[in-house]
Design brief:
Chain lengths: ~350, ~280
């Protein structure tokens, strides 16, 4: 890129998203392999081993929420609601099919059921909610998340406040990782397609998107339903990782935690969502030894990371160590060396 | 609702379009905002390859007319026939599919997306890949994407912008942003393009270049172009038919020469001479 360096107008070149995402996926596979070996070899403590599946679940949740917050540009606070709907649908399915189907068929089917039921709820809630924008949408989705939780607590077949017992514990690190990879590939593909462009166009300028022939209502609904589907799948993984499923875990604190992950990782950045999901999930556990100061340090780390993320100087430092910049620096060094040799 | 009458106004269709059905036929169009009548009894016809101008003092209702034509507002009275089809009750994106594309007075680009992606959004309805193809990226998807990219670069080359394809749209200089908006509008394959102050903020040499390009676009794509503009050298230079709007009403209609000497127009712009 010659004209990139002599750029009189300060025109920013956009990065090639696909190559960037391939790097991300490869790094993720390597991280998975390392963790799998460590956990199989017994090097990882029991406590850390128990964190592997929750990390995967939070990655799925964060990336799917990013589809709404980062790519569609709408703040929603009801993601935990869709997660709980999926979790209960999937777990009830598994309990019913426990004796009939083997695990290899039952579990993928349960995830599909959980995802689809959550997607249906996405449509039902989306029809009234998607008339709104901005703060109003955020508050109404928050309310819907809370309604779902209250309904589940008061229903008979969900186990009520006591929780749902008897779900087979099918979630393993390997399965959770496979689901993470499928989710990431599907969402990355979506974002880099005609449909993804339409969704981002709505974020950047709704009026212009509509004038360019994009059915804004349809694509807002599409993003909302897709996000609900993957939240539902993550919920099924969650439900099959515990011996007892209680609705209390899906309150607005969970939705806010997910939003924190997405904002911290950078809205519209899939790689950022993954990294920050890993950090935010592990942080409280890593700090467990500090007992009383745990939440204090957690909050401080959040504040510091947010400040760093918002600082242009940190962004410049980060850019300096990006593969493209390192390559350019190496090339410049080489060119300078050759120049010296010629003289 | 008023009844349709055949060609209510003296049409200013250029000779080469005279025997053809007009692309746009607006009859008795009007809109009220509360008690305020923003546009009233607006009659206008556009030939298939005509360049038409809509001028008038600030606040005359020019942009409101554009918003009515693209169904951003619902008219209180009258009808819009686009290629013979009444667009009443359609949404903006349906009207776009039917053949109206527009640019905006205050530039509205997809600022965080690349220049190429901006044009590809314009190609949205001509890129044929369904949701399944979009999430799986099969061979058919790649074929459609390649086609869209080729077409987008071809359209960008109209303004010699193909080198900027990877630039972020929001970081382009002002003139390039205006040009990109026109390219994006062209990408939707319109029958008529509405340009809202395309020369705003441009210097005389840029305006002259824009004038050439508008003519070139009309000749290459064989479409009608209607523009709102305050730069009289541009309007008088390329428009074949001009309508002058004041307080929401058409006060004059005619060729550039007729408009220049029309006393009602002079009064609207400069005020009445005191006796």
């Amino acid at each position: 890129m010659q004209n990139n360096q002599h750029n009189p107008f300060g025109i920013k070149m956009s990065k090639k998203p696909l190559t960037k995402n391939i790097v991300t996926l490869t790094a993720l596979v390597i991280a998975f392999a390392v963790m799998l070996v460590l956990s199989e070899a017994g090097i990882l403590s029991r406590h850390m081993r128990s964190m592997l599946v929750p990390v995967c679940i939070n990655i799925i949740l964060a990336v799917s929420l990013n589809l709404l917050v980062g790519f569609l540009g709408e703040l929603t606070l009801g993601h935990a609601g869709f997660m709980s709907v999926g979790a209960y649908a999937g777990c009830l399915f598994s309990i019913a099919m426990k004796e009939i189907l083997p695990m290899a068929i039952r579990f993928p089917l349960a995830m599909l059921v959980g995802g689809l039921v959550a997607a249906v709820f996405g449509v039902i809630i989306g029809i009234p909610v998607l008339r709104l924008h901005g703060d109003y949408l955020a508050i109404v989705t928050l309310a819907f998340g809370e309604i779902i939780r209250s309904v589940i607590i008061n229903l008979e077949f969900t186990g009520g406040a006591a929780g749902l017992k008897g779900t087979p514990q099918d979630s393993t690190f390997v399965i959770a990782f496979i689901v993470v990879m499928i989710t990431l590939i599907l969402i990355i593909n979506l974002v880099n397609s005609r449909h993804g462009r339409a969704i981002m166009a709505i974020r950047d300028n709704r009026i212009a998107a509509e004038a360019s022939g994009i059915n804004v209502t349809y694509f807002r609904m599409l993003a909302f339903v897709m996000a609900a589907f993957f939240a539902g799948v993550a919920g099924v993984l969650y439900g099959h990782n515990l011996s007892i499923l209680t609705a209390g875990t899906f309150d607005y604190n969970k939705s806010i935690e997910l939003l924190v992950i997405v904002v911290l990782g950078g809205m519209g950045s899939i790689r950022g969502s993954i990294v920050s999901a890993i950090i935010i999930t592990l942080l409280p556990e890593v700090l467990r030894d500090l007992a009383d100061y745990r939440m204090l340090i957690y909050a401080l780390v959040l504040i510091i990371m947010m400040l760093l993320n918002a600082s242009p100087r940190f962004a410049a430092v980060k850019a300096q160590f990006s593969p493209a910049a390192l390559k350019a620096a190496a090339a410049a060094k080489k060119a300078a060396k050759e120049g010296n040799a010629n003289e | 609702m008023s009844k349709l009458v055949p060609l209510p106004s003296k049409a200013l269709v250029p000779e080469r379009d005279a025997d053809k059905f007009p692309i746009l036929d607006v009859r008795h169009l009007g809109i009220d905002f509360g008690g305020l009548t923003a546009v009233d009894d607006f009659n206008f016809t556009m030939g298939r390859t005509e360049i038409g101008g809509l001028i008038g003092p600030n606040g005359a209702g020019k942009t409101t007319v554009f918003n009515l034509l693209t169904n951003v507002y619902r008219p209180t009275r009258g009808s819009i026939l686009l290629d013979g089809v009444d667009t009443l009750g359609m949404s903006t994106h349906q009207v776009n599919k039917l053949g109206i594309a527009r640019t905006f007075q205050n530039i509205r680009l997809f600022t965080n997306m690349s220049v190429l992606d901006n044009v590809k959004v314009g190609l949205h309805n001509s890129t044929k890949s369904n949701l399944f193809a979009s999430v799986t990226h099969g061979p058919a998807f790649h074929k459609a994407e390649r086609k869209a990219k080729e077409r987008a670069l071809e359209l960008l080359s109209v303004f010699h912008m193909e080198d900027l394809a990877d630039a972020q749209a929001g970081s382009l200089p002002y003139g390039a942003q205006r040009r990109l908006e026109i390219v994006r509008a062209l990408a939707t394959e319109p029958g008529i393009m509405l340009l809202d102050e395309p020369a705003a903020g441009m210097n005389p040499s840029e305006t002259a270049e824009l004038m050439e390009n508008i003519r070139k676009i009309r000749d290459t794509f064989q479409i009608a172009i209607m523009l709102i503009e305050h730069d009289m050298s541009l309007v008088m230079g390329i428009c074949e038919g001009i309508a002058v709007l004041n307080y929401g009403k058409i006060i004059a209609k005619g060729t550039p020469d007729e408009i220049k000497s029309n006393p009602a127009v002079i009064e609207a712009y400069l005020g009445k001479k005191e006796e």
